[in-house]
Design brief:
about 475 residues; alpha+beta; Aminopeptidase; 23 strands
Length: about 475
């Protein structure tokens, strides 16, 4: 098995639509892959696919190894980019040793894991025991496939999760998560007479993964917009007509805008506030998020209706004050985020509802639930209806893992240095697997990815070489 073979599979995967909740094309592709090669294939009601190959001669007594990745991807694109994730292939280029999708997400999370599994299944020369390749659905939006796994779907006791993003690091634990949604009912009101409408907001933020990147000190466009709106409500006169920002629960918001109806004489004051806040943001994020830009459009179309002033002010106060970012660092593991919250999105919906999406993570169940209750309290005071969904457990680290010892020995033998062993603040499906298969011995590793869950996502090709070599060696050493 070579990295070129893995990359060839990945380039084919780039042509297959697989947004979370719409994985039918990648499921059919995996099923056909197995059928064309006479491999055993099962698909459960949730769309999880399991392709199994028997042990090679002489390895019949080796333990069964499960290789696991998720079949969906986060679909994000820059504003103004003409790309339909339901049918258009991902465009990727190689620059300076990286495979990059410049205007969209690349889907290497976790497409490169899928590609590695397919390369393993095709390899005729690698000695191995029985291998089960598991491809789970809708990991990015709620770990739906992992939640739906039946206890008799898998037989292996060793699981290699291929959904990590830092080559040279072996992951033995992760945070659990919960989604918290706030809904603000509002009363549509007429736009006051004699007003002009302007669109304001922010764009150009790096964004990123709400787990891996939450401690990188990046801006959140939704909260930046709320910062401007709060000042406008205190220093000028305006009516909030529309608001929109962010997108996926597990992505840091990169863009957010609002349409305001203002008196013609107040437009200058509003623009000054926007420019002052932009200057502050550029100073505050000069190192971590240097390309923040303001959105300013005058004389936009006047909407048919606006949001009533009381709800608008309550919403602005809530968005401005609700916690976002790191809430606590681990006292046990240096440098590990213990608890965080992501203010992910604000969207106007039918039936006069403004929906705010957030997510909380922690490797400690009580702290995760306390973080969610704090978010609930902030929104409840502002008059919102709050619900919690999609809670999933963390994965508690174990330094006594047998597969960890195999991976560490393989890494030293291959590359002449010790790998880093750590837990991750992002969520992996491993915690759910342990709920259903308590005897699993698990580890997670992968090549180096950067900018996941945001346009510009990239894969380091040199790290892919090392990832593939490690995966092959670990499989061989599971004797």
């Amino acid at each position: 098995m070579t990295s070129a073979q893995v990359l060839s599979h990945f380039r084919e995967i780039l042509t297959i639509p697989r947004e979370s909740g719409h994985e039918e094309h990648i499921i059919a592709y995996l099923q056909k892959f197995a059928a064309d090669r006479n491999m055993e294939c099962r698909t459960d009601e949730a769309g999880n696919v399991l392709i199994t190959i028997p042990a090679t001669p002489g390895r019949e007594n080796a333990p069964t190894v499960i290789l696991q990745s998720h079949s969906d991807m986060v679909c994000e694109k820059n504003s103004g980019v003409d790309h339909d994730f339901s049918k258009d292939p991902i465009k990727a280029v190689v620059e300076n040793g990286w495979l990059i999708a410049k205007d969209t997400t690349l889907g290497a999370d976790c497409g490169i894991g899928i590609a590695a599994q397919l390369a393993v299944l095709e390899d005729k020369d690698m000695p191995h025991g029985k291998i089960e390749c598991l491809f789970t659905t809708s990991e990015e939006t709620g770990l739906d496939g992992a939640f739906a796994l039946k206890p008799d779907f898998l037989t292996g006791k060793i699981l290699l999760n291929l959904d990590s993003e830092d080559e040279g690091e072996l992951f033995i634990g992760c945070a659990g998560g919960i989604d918290t949604t706030a809904k603000f009912p509002y009363t549509p009101v007429p736009v006051p007479a004699g007003r002009i409408c302007i669109r304001i907001g922010f764009c150009g933020g790096i964004g990123g993964h709400s787990g891996d990147d939450i401690d990188k000190g990046r801006s959140n466009a939704v909260q930046s917009l709320a910062r401007v709106l709060y000042r406008i409500w205190n220093e000028a006169s305006a009516t909030l007509c529309t608001i929109d920002g962010g997108n996926k629960r597990n992505a840091i918001a990169r863009e957010a805008t609002a349409v305001l109806a203002v008196k013609p004489g107040d437009a200058f004051a509003v623009k000054n506030i926007l420019e002052e806040v932009l200057a502050e943001l550029r100073d505050e994020y000069s190192v971590t998020d240097p390309d923040i830009a303001a959105v300013w459009e005058e004389n936009t179309d006047i909407p048919a209706q606006a949001i009533d002033d009381r709800t608008a002010f309550n919403l602005i106060c809530a968005l401005h004050s609700v916690p976002h970012g790191v809430m606590a660092m681990s006292a046990e593991v240096k440098g590990l985020v213990e608890t965080s919250s992501n203010l992910a999105s604000v969207k106007m919906q039918e039936d006069n509802i403004i929906r705010v999406g957030t997510s909380q993570r922690s490797s400690t169940n009580s702290l995760r639930r306390n973080a969610a209750s704090r978010i609930e309290a902030a929104f409840t005071v502002a008059g919102a209806e709050v619900t919690h969904e999609s809670e999933y457990p963390g994965w508690k680290p174990s330094l006594k893992s047998h597969i960890l010892e195999i991976c560490k020995a393989s890494y030293v033998r291959l590359f002449g240095k010790e790998p880093v062993v750590r837990a991750i603040h992002a969520g992996l499906e491993c915690g759910l697997f342990l709920d259903k298969y308590p005897d699993l011995d698990m580890i997670s590793f992968g090549p180096t990815l950067r900018g996941v869950h945001a346009p510009g996502e990239r894969l380091e090709l040199a790290s892919l070489d090392r990832f593939v070599a490690l995966l092959e060696d670990v499989i061989k050493e599971c004797k």
